[in-house]
Structure formats: C-alpha cells, structure tokens
C-alpha cells in the first residue's frame, strides 16, 4: 500500500471516532526515524543529543534515550524542568542563551538539582555574568559557547566565541567551558544543506583552534539541524542535535532529507465547504500554523491530492485550491495533511493520536511539555 492510500484510507478509517482536526502519528515511522538517525550517528562516531522541542513529549524523549541518545537538547529551562518532573533525567543542553534573572535562575537551579548535568548556552558576557550571579558556579553546570555559522541569529563569530571561552576560563574559573555549538539553520532552503553543514564544521573548528582546546578529549563540539545532521558529522564535530527527524515534515521533503514515506505525523481535517475550484477544511492556522517558506506554495500537503494547494489559512479555516481539472472533495470527507513545519504544530495540541499499522489500533501520547516556554 502506498503512503497516500495508507493515510487517506487506512488511518482516516481507523481514527474515525476522533473529532477533527487532530494530529496523528504513525508509530512505526516514528520508531524507524528514531532508530535510523541514531544508527547513522553511531556509524559516523558522533553522539546524538535530540532536540525535544519538536515532539514536546517525555514519552518520546524516553524512546530516543533508549535508542542510544547520550543526552537531550531543550529550547527552554522549563522544558528541562518538565522532563525532570516526569522522571526523564539525563545530560541536558539548553540550546538558547538564557539571561538568568531571578525567575529563570530558579528554574535553572531546579533543573540542575535533577539532571546529571546542565549545559547552558552562552554568547555574551552578560549571559555569562548572569550565570555566575545566579550561583551556578557548581559542579554539574557546563558552558556551551554558541558560534554563529551563518544563520545570523544568536551566537558569535568563531573569533569572538573563542575569546569568550577564554574569558570564561580566566575570569569565571569556577565555571566549566564544556564546549562549542552551532545551528546550521541557513540550510533551510533547497540546495543549501551541504554548504551550511560545511559552515558548521569550519566555524566550530576555527573556534576550537583559537581557544586552544583542540586536544581536549572531553570537549563537546556540537552541530545541529535535521538537514545538516549527517553532513556535518565529521571532525571536529562530535555531537549532533537534530529535532525534526523524529516526525519529518514537508520542509524536509522539499529539502530532499526524506520523502513522504518518512513523514510520520499528519493532521486529519474535515471538508466543511466545497466549491467548483476549491474546498475549505476545519483546520487552519491554529493547527497547521502559518509557516510557509518562500520556496513552498502551500501551507501543507493534502497527501492523497498532492497537486492541490492550501492557499490561505485563517484561525480555523484552511482554503484549498483544487488542481486544474480535479473535482473538489465532498463536504464531510476527511483528508490527511502533512504539515510544512512539524515543531510548532505539535505545540498546538494537547496530545498526539497514534496509529500502529501493525495492529491497526489507535492510542494517545500526551504532549506534556506543551507550552513550557520560559
């Protein structure tokens, strides 16, 4: 059975008692994606530290750790605390620089008290000073200096990153510089992955060299994005931090990182209006999001009607233009939609409906880290 038939008939039929719109996960595809990324990293001799912001689920985090991940990546301190509250304790990186005012310092202390190690992103003297002021100059806290490898978001040039690492070592002697990291997010356009991965490798290598840390065996040198994960997994990089790979999405399909068979999370919606050249779904921005890169022409793909385009999304409406010559589906018909960017989609639902193709049964996975933005 091809994937179009699987999603539009098998999954739609098996989940007929669920009220639309909802997000459903093929557990076999998810398990395969987890296993494949882990085995590819193992084969290349790099550690895998998956990003939990994609799935926001302590259950799935456990699956990744059980598959061999050596730690986890969080976007926020509250995600770190949420993992610990659910009993998921590990070596943890918070991969966004956090200025530790008192509310966030309290979250950091709580996370540190539970996890085996807490790695904090640093890209300025101000962030560094806030860590010291919060009293986190204790064993178990490590500094990860962020290098900007071309995205132009947070992070420093390799030269400035090395200088900050040296200042941390000299001026804040009680704080450990655990390593350097970068995010090759500029890979998110067709044909850009290889160059972005090379930028990651070269920028990190330059920072390590300038900091005089080339020979340090325990230094973490971490790259991270799903499009570049396997391309940047070579020395000096010794760790990868992808997130989207766990479910896949239409961006990854468009970038050539997977095909529709690697997409394991799909929105099921119902047709609520049908006209000659278009139809309207009960799924809009509040589940599909408004995430559509310039190089994509639809807010997701209707899987069994791939030439149709979701041209507009309102809060609770998705307007779909039919492909020329194709008739609109009937009101009441359910359709599967592969989202463009799965990470924000997951954060819009309380739970993932699951489908096990081996048994035909459905289930639930709580999105128990939903929110957790601090």
Give an overview in words.
With about 375 residues, this protein is an alpha/beta fold. The chain has 2 domains: about 5-25 and about 250-365, Lyase, Ornithine Decarboxylase, Chain A, domain 1, CATH 2.40.37.20; about 50-240, Alanine racemase (TIM Barrel). It has 11 helices and 17 strands. The chain has helices at about 5-15, 25-45, 60-65, 75-85, 100-115, 125-135, 160-170, 195-210, 250-255, 285-290, 340-345; strands spanning about 20-25, 45-50, 70-75, 90-95, 115-120, 140-145, 175-180, 220-225, 240, 265-275, 280, 300, 310-315, 320, 335-340, 350-355, 360-365. Strands 1, 10, 11, 12, 13, 14, 15, 16 and 17 form a 9-stranded mixed beta sheet that branches. The protein has an 8-stranded parallel beta sheet with strand order 2-9-8-7-6-5-4-3. A hairpin with a 4-residue loop joins strand 16 and strand 17. Helix 4 (about 75-85) runs parallel beside helix 5 (about 100-115) and helix 7 runs parallel beside helix 8 (about 195-210). It is elongated. It starts with a helix and ends in an 8-residue tail after the last strand.
């Amino acid at each position: 059975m091809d994937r179009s038939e699987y999603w539009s008939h098998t999954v739609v039929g098996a989940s007929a008692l669920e009220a639309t719109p909802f997000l459903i996960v093929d557990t076999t595809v998810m398990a395969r994606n987890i296993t494949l990324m882990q085995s590819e990293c193992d084969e290349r001799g790099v550690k895998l530290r998956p990003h939990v912001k994609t799935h926001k689920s302590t259950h799935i985090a456990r699956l990744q750790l059980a598959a061999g991940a050596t730690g986890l990546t969080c976007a926020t301190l509250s995600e770190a605390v949420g993992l610990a509250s659910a009993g998921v304790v590990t070596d943890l990186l918070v991969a966004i620089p956090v200025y530790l005012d008192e509310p966030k310092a309290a979250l950091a202390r709580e996370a540190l008290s539970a996890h085996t190690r807490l790695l904090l992103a640093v890209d300025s003297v101000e962030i560094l000073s806030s860590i010291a002021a919060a009293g986190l100059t204790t064993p178990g806290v490590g500094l990860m200096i962020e290098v900007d490898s071309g995205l132009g978001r947070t992070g420093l040039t390799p030269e400035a990153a090395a200088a900050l690492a040296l200042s941390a070592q000299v001026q804040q002697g009680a704080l450990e510089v655990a390593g350097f990291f970068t995010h090759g997010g500029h890979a998110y356009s067709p044909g850009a992955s290889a160059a972005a991965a090379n930028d990651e490798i070269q920028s990190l290598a330059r920072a390590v060299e300038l900091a005089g840390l080339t020979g340090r065996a325990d230094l973490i040198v971490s790259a991270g994005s799903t499009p570049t994960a396997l391309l940047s997994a070579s020395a000096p990089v010794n760790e990868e931090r992808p997130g989207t790979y766990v479910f896949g999405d239409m961006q990854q399909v468009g970038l050539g990182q997977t095909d529709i068979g690697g997409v394991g999370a799909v929105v099921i919606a119902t047709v609520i209006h049908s006209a000659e050249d278009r139809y309207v779904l009960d799924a809009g921005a509040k589940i599909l999001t408004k995430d559509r890169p310039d190089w994509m022409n639809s807010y997701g793909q209707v899987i069994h009607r791939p030439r149709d385009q979701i041209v507009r999304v309102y809060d609770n409406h998705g307007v779909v233009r039919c492909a020329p010559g194709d008739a609109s589906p009937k009101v009441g018909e359910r359709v599967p939609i592969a989202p463009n960017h799965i990470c924000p989609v997951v954060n819009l639902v309380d739970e993932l409906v699951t489908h096990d193709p081996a048994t035909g049964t459905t289930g639930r996975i709580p999105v128990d880290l939903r929110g957790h933005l601090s």
